[in-house]
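Example record used in the benchmark description.
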Amino acid sequence: MALEEGKVKIEKFDGRDFRFWKMQMEDYLYQKKVYQPLSNKPDDMRQEEWNLLDRQALGVIRLTLAKNVAFNIVNEKTIAGLMKALSDMYEKPSAVNKIKFEDEVKALISLSSLPDSWAATVTAVSSSTRENTLKLSDIRDLILSE
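Model output (structure tokens):
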């Protein structure tokens, strides 16, 4: 999402990074006050009001889809159907979502992935945390401060 002269510009979703795009779309729909179709129809809302709101939200989302993605959802007539179809296509579990590492393992992976020019820092961090558990947040903060 990019700000452009007080307006929000959302890049067209091209099939990559669905979760990020979905988060941006939900925020954008709230900003445009057409977010209700993301959940169920309120009991006190007339059906024709709901249909109009759903169609408005559907239009907003369709305008943020690249042609190759829009082609796959052209038959969806509701925001619920559209979001389910997109989720089914692009929010598939991957190995990254399935594997859970302890925080210390993540920290060690981060340290070991640093370039050779960081060897002195890696040695200092590794030797200073012999008694304490290494934390990813500490490694992240150290890297960001350098």
